[in-house]
Amino acid sequence: MRLTVRHQTSYTYSKPITYAIQTLRLSPRPYEGLNVIAWRVRGAARHELPSFIDGYGNLVHCHTVNHTHDSAIVTVEGEVETRATDGIIRGAEETLPPLFFLRTTRLTAVDPAIEDMAQSLPGAGFERLLALMHGVHARLAYTAGSTQSNTTAAEALKLGAGVCQDQAHLFIAAARALKVPARYVGGYLWAGSGDENQASHAWAEAYLPEFGWIGFDPTNRTQPGEAYIRASIGLDYWSAAPVRGVRRGEGEEALSVKVKVKDWAAQQQQQQQQ
Amino acid sequence: MPDTDTTPPAPVVAFDETGLPGECLPQYDLIRRWLDETPRDFIELKRREAELLFRRIGITFAVYSEGGNPERLIPFDIIPRVLDPAEWTMMSRGLTQRVKALNAFMRDIYHEREILHAGKIPAELVLHNDGFRPEMQGFDVPHDTYAHISGIDMVRVGPKEFFVLEDNCRTPSGVSYMLENREAMMRLFPDLYSRHRIAPVSHYPEELRDTLRSVAPPNCEGEPTIVLLTPGANNSAYYEHSFLADEMGIELVEGVDLVIDENIVYMRTTEGLRRVDVIYRRLDDDYLDPLTFLPDSLLGTPGLFNAYRSGNVTLANAVGTGIADDKAIYPFVPAMIKFYLGEEPILSNVPTYRCSEKDDLAYVLEHLDALVVKETRGSGGYGMLVGPHATNAERQMFAAKLKAKPYDYIAQPTLALSTCPTFVENGIAPRHVDLRPFVLSGKEIRIVPGGLTRVALRGGSLVVNSSQGGGTKDTWVLESVGDAEPHRR
Q1: Which conformational region is residue A249 in: left (phi greater than 0), alpha (psi within -120 to 50 degrees), or beta?
Q2: How far apart are CA A207 and CA A214, in angstroms?
Q3: Which label site among A22, A222, B139, B396 has the fewest CB atoms less than 10 Å from its CB?
């Protein structure tokens, strides 16, 4: 499936600020399930941003605005060809061994409630992870705005609500409690034609020796397929964060994010009809 | 692992640096005679002069566990600690070997991890260690050097028995004391000094500068701009930071003095922004960059790590060196030397019990009264138990900690650290000492002869850390033993 992405983030400040810097993990890298046709990340000056590959193998862009400004814009535009792989990640550049992804972090720390949840799952291997995916969906009702970016898996579980980030964290924490390596994935999701609710998304991957890394999307209770664009991985949200930024100045920030993921074929058709 | 037999703790009868009872090693001969001949009043006068000298220089060290004014003078003892040429030759060869292996280990651990595949070190011990920084995976640093400045703590228990007690590969401090102590000795006792042929140390800042220059990023053209990054005036080693920057003739900066633009590091100067190529940073990994590490750190510079990882600036020491000096990794350094260099270790490790191992833990709990227990991530002598000197209550408290978090602790036999004659309240008495030589690694390895000798001033105490009431001494490495020609400076 050919997907096109246009992701624009506009920042406006109530008072001019003197400096802003961001680390962006918004670019997919190829694997069997995805081929990058074109991709670019641009900043306020509309030039391509400097980039590097991080320790996890993510393509990272660095955006700085080093002068007084009251607005800034970051634009991601790209086109990819995806292929369904039953959620299995093959052919990706794996920089760190699965064992590393058993490491706990503050956001994915296991508390007794998570331990309990993990230990009471039925089955083994893949079956058990499927059960976990459904369990997370059932225990954490998707509620926009219910949590913050620094909410831990344990806090979200207690609250019984969260967003895709929290659901991914809970999945990861419980998987690791079962000694299954697990990691966080950030990216984009094509939610079907006509759906206005297009957005950035987060899900999880777990490692089973017989399959390698496999994706699980607790939010949508499915294995990531050709509608998914995998843009970053990490131990948790902090290491895989699509955007981490700091600014200098007193102004309040207002943020507007527009994400459009489109099916390229449908787009072509539409254009021909017009 | 050391054999877990149940030999009782050796009584702390320590080897004295001046020789076995009744003898005086040749390298201490002149000092012995000088101490015997010089009137006590004169020496007392000089001791007070020394204190004044250090107060005037303002050399202080913050002690975290004490309340009130954190700035305190580290006591300086005027009786030097002396090493003869053969001792130093052996030690410096051993240090070079060890630091080479530690750097090779870091290069490997952040790339192919051959040593883990070969089963020489348990993989979880590295991969699940906070000191292992995934951010460094796959990144090539100039000359494959990670620990540009290492402080290797050495102890001696017999005439020929030297041990490495721990490696410090993050931001080791203390070198300013080494330099100031020498300065003080030359000023206070010029006659005694000139009667020895002592290897100089005053070129350390130059050697450090050359080392830092040699690791400039490949894209740096011309003379690299080097700065020293400090956490600021509240840091316990701030004096040293400003001293070294001064001596090297480089800028002393804080995180806010640096700015990242388009992945390049600049420092703010009165003439505008100036590109920075090498940062001698005395700020821990966690605080370096809020965009990569602790998000709420205000001490670092946002975007610094990205610039580093893009090869636009060199950090010395590299990020992620904590994996090499972790006390849980320490027992494996001899294996690293064999694995990477194919050599037998020149310097010995102290036998170490890893409390994460069931058998070791059982042994440690049985023998708490004979062992020294340390936190794997601790430093500065904080959070440790010296079994033979601890109360029952303290030992019980530690036993509980060990059972709760065995992974966080190691234990070692209580070593009878060598003693050196030291001025105390009622005359001269032996006090336990250690030695921290500073090893510089860049394109090549350089070691200024000697290092910092730390001395436990309390009688019988084995804890030499300045944060725990230790003092320092000048360390003399002799170029030759015997009375120097009278006209030689």
Answers
A1: left
A2: 6
A3: B396
Inform me whether the pLDDT recorded for B103 exceeds 90. Answer: yes
Q: What are phi and psi of B218, to 5 degrees?
A: -55, -30
Is residue A64 within 8 angstroms of chain B, CB to CB? yes
Q: How far is CA A148 from CA A152, A246, B235, B284, in A?
A: 9, 17, 33, 28
**Chain B nearest-CA residue for A98:** B127
**ipTM of predicted assembly, 2 dp:** 0.95
Domain ranges of chain B: 218-312, 352-414
Q: Which residues are A246's β-sheet partners?
A: A21
CA B64 to chain centroid, in Å, comes to: 18
Q: What CA–CA distance (Å, rounded) separates B36 from B28?
A: 12
Ordered strands of the A51-53 beta sheet:
A51-53, A59-65, A19-27, A243-248
The whole-angstrom separation of Cα A220 and Cα A223 is 9
By CA distance, what is B136's nearest residue in A?
A55
Residues of B in contact with A176 (CB under 8 A): none
Cα–Cα nearest to B417, from B390, B453, B364, B469: B453
Q: Tokens 């499915």 — which residue?
A: A222
Per-residue pLDDT, B11: 42
Own/partner pairs, B398-403, CB within 8 angstroms, 24+ separation: B398/B368, B398/B373, B399/B365, B399/B368, B402/B355, B402/B361, B402/B364, B402/B365, B402/B373, B403/B361, B403/B365
Dist. CA B164–CA B437, nearest whole Å: 11
Measured CA to CA in angstroms, residue A114 lies from A135, A176, B108, B128 at distances of 11, 10, 35, 20
> What confidence score (pLDDT) does residue A238 get?
94
Best mean pLDDT range from A261-265, B202-206, B388-392 = B202-206
A66 touches chain B (CB under 8 A): yes
CA B228 to chain centroid, in Å, comes to 18
Q: pTM, whole model, 2 decimals?
A: 0.93
Q: Do B137 and A55 touch (CB under 8 A)?
A: yes
* Position B384 pLDDT exceeds 90: no
Considering only the beta carbons, identify the residue of A54, A55, A100 that sits closest to B127: A100
For B33, what's the count of Cα atoms within 13 Å in the CB-facing half-sphere?
10
- Please tell me the class of the B218-312 domain: alpha beta
Q: Which of A50, A96, A245 sits opposite B134 (nearest CB)?
A: A96
What local confidence, expressed as pLDDT, does residue B51 receive? 82
Give the per-residue pLDDT at B303: 97
What would you report as the CA-atom Rg of chain B, rounded to the nearest whole angstrom?
A: 23
Question: Over the range A119-137, which residues count as b (16 or more CB within 10 Å of their CB) and which as e?
Answer: eebeeeeeebbbebbebbb
Structure tokens at B161: 């028995």
Instruction: Tell me whether residues B138 and A103 touch, CB distance under 8 A.
Output: no
Q: Looking at the predicted structure, is the pLDDT value of residue B401 above 80?
A: yes
Class of domain B352-414: alpha beta
**Residue type at position A219:** T
- A232 pLDDT exceeds 50? yes
Between A95, A235, A246, which is nearest B302 by CB?
Answer: A246
pLDDT of B70 strictly over 60: no
Q: Which of A57, A64, A102 sits opposite B260 (nearest CB)?
A: A64
Give me the residue spans of the domains in chain A.
2-273
Task: Look at the domain A2-273 and name its fold.
Answer: C8orf32 fold (3.10.620)
Q: Do B137 and A246 touch (CB under 8 A)?
A: no
